[in-house]
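Page 47, continued from p. 46.
Same chain as before, 93 aa.
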Amino acid sequence: MRIAFAGPGAVIVAVVVMAGMSLWLPRGAAGIDNLVVPLVLVPLIWAGLFFHACLDAKLWRVAVVATGLLLVHGALVAHRFLERKPVVAEARP
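Result:
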């Protein structure tokens, strides 16, 4: 189980955190900071999750942290995709 959290689990959680992070980071002056910063931080997020899974003595704590990050950021991404924008009605003559 520890190998699953350290291997593919860490990669999946890091990618989902990257996608969710672009939604809560503020936009910079150029309007791209909320996109670039998550891309730069993905290796650090992955490394943190990987080493946490390898070095923590209690596996349940690893599961709680990884699952919590996955659920919170996954919900942010899902909410963004499920937002319904009002359809503008065409003007009829």
